[in-house]
Amino acid sequence: MRAHVDDYIGRLELALSALSREELGRLGDTLMRAYRNDKQVYVIGNGGSSSTASHMAADLAKNTIGPNMKRFRIATLSENAAIVTALANDVGYENVFSEQLINVLEAGDVLIVVSASGNSPNVVRAIRYAQEQSAEVIGLLGFDGGEAARMVDIPIVVESHDYGIVEDVHLIINHMLVEYFQQELLAARPWAV
């Protein structure tokens, strides 16, 4: 087991060290702009990435605020089993996110897609729809980024072909963001309500 632990940690460290600091900075700037301009942030993903999307929405909604502070407007589109399964049944699983965005997405909003492969049809369709509506699109991706890396405004690709490593790094990015916004918003508090 010790050799496996060392190997896993080594692969995780390698993936973390290869992250684009520039793209991570752009991600933080985009979310700060959305916060300041009262724009909505939506997060989507499938499977384990759906869990990461939910985790991110919960963390940024709750863990970045203090008393009497404006809240992040953030939600995930994969938690309502009734709407996801109804859309999958009636119009196809490839449309479960884009169809939900039709009801809510406005110009200047932000869509964060979490996808290891970057090739899931429902993620690709959601990206396309969001861009047609002049929303900003960020990809937390893995492997080679897939089709999504070529489509999104800010591609953050975890350079690994191991689902576990990719998903771990996506959660680490989430926690980096939460810590950053805790520090920035609680220190300045210029947008308190």
Question: Can you summarize this structure?
Answer:
The protein has eight helices and five strands; from the N terminus they run H-H-E-H-E-H-H-E-H-E-H-E-H. It is α/β, with parallel strands linked by helices. The chain has a single domain, classed as Glucose-6-phosphate isomerase like protein, domain 1 (Rossmann fold), CATH 3.40.50.
Quickly list its features.
alpha/beta, five-stranded parallel beta sheet, globular
**Secondary structure tally: strands:** 5
Q: Give the biggest beta sheet.
A: 5 strands, parallel
- SSE order, one letter for each helix or strand: HHEHEHHEHEHEH
Q: Spans with pLDDT under 50 lasting ≥5 residues?
A: none
What distance separates the N and C termini?
52 Å
Structural class: alpha/beta
For this structure, the quaternary state is single chain
Helix amount: 55-70%
CATH class term: Alpha Beta
Shape: globular
Count, helices: 8
* Count of folded domains: 1
Rg, please?
A: 17 Å
Give a written overview of the molecule.
By secondary structure, this protein is of the alpha/beta class. It has one domain: Glucose-6-phosphate isomerase like protein, domain 1 (Rossmann fold, 3-Layer(aba) Sandwich), CATH 3.40.50.10490. It is built from eight helices and five strands; from the N terminus they run ααβαβααβαβαβα. It has helices at residues 2-17, 21-36, 48-62, 81-91, 98-104, 121-132, 146-151, 163-188, and strands at 41-45, 74-76, 110-115, 136-141, 154-157. The chain has a five-stranded parallel sheet, sandwiched between helices. α3 links the parallel β1 and β2 (74-76). The protein is globular and about 50 Å long.
